[in-house]
Write a structure and sequence with these properties.
The structure holds 2 protein chains of 2 kinds. In chain A, 0% of the residues lie in helices and 57% in strands. By secondary structure, chain A is mostly beta strands. Chain B contains no helices and 11 strands. The chains are: A mainly beta, B mainly beta.
Chain lengths: 114, 114
């Protein structure tokens, strides 16, 4: 059974600081996703990581993937209040390609304070 | 380009009733996945459809069922509703196997069972 663990689950940080969210998964996967969810809203796609060593950046967010360690990180640089949200990582089992059911972590509830 | 649409957005039902939720994927997308989100269990995969065929199914009882139509629209049905079925139900659409790995989520249907 594929398990996805995120840590921390709750994070309160100050604007301007850097921090990293970690996502560990238990079995081999060929795809890892990061999503953002604002309260009462749906999921917004941030990144899809497809290969070992993949790194993607968008604004103050950068995601990386180490398939050998079964670990992905979401790094936040110089945090701003607008990044306050819950962040989920999700993994799909090796499926030979195409979309498959995602197994999600429990999410990291991030609060960024002035 | 219109996003994923889900109807209805909010629904209140009584225990024992059944409910049908609808999802229209992004134009050109042929794969639809369904997820249940609750505070206790988080985001859980229900099932995935492609070309009117169920490709994958999560670990949910048989009361949860779905189908996909030739225009890629999908419905999910929950029979004999229980209080624990209260949740946000999200659908996600993608192009299909081997075409793209992006999964785009709809706004969700919030179901309350009383």
């Amino acid at each position: 059974e594929l398990k996805v663990e995120q840590n921390p689950l709750f994070l309160s940080m100050q604007e301007g600081k850097n921090y990293t969210i970690y996502c560990n998964y238990s079995t081999t996967s060929d795809r890892l996703y990061w999503y953002r969810q604002d309260p009462g809203k749906s999921l917004e796609s941030l990144f899809v990581l497809l290969s070992n060593g993949a790194v993607k950046q968008e604004g103050r967010l950068m995601a990386s993937l180490d398939t050998k360690a079964r670990l992905s990180t979401l790094h936040i640089t110089a945090a701003v209040h607008d990044l306050s949200a819950t962040y989920f990582c999700a993994v799909v089992l090796n499926s030979g390609g195409g979309a498959d059911g995602l197994t999600f972590g429990k999410g990291t509830h991030l609060i960024i304070q002035p | 380009k219109a996003g994923v649409t889900q109807t209805p957005r909010y629904l209140i039902k009584t225990r024992g009733q059944q409910v049908t939720l609808s999802c229209s994927p992004i134009s050109g997308h042929r794969s639809v996945s369904w997820y249940q989100q609750t505070p206790g269990q988080g985001l859980q995969f229900l099932f995935e459809y492609f070309s009117e065929t169920q490709r994958n199914k999560g670990n949910f009882p048989g009361r949860f069922s779905g189908r996909q139509f030739s225009n890629s629209r999908s419905e999910m049905n929950v029979s004999t509703l229980e209080l624990g079925d209260s949740a946000l139900y999200l659908c996600a659409s993608s192009l299909g196997p081997g075409k793209s790995y992006e999964q785009y989520f709809g706004p969700g249907t919030r179901l309350t069972v009383t």
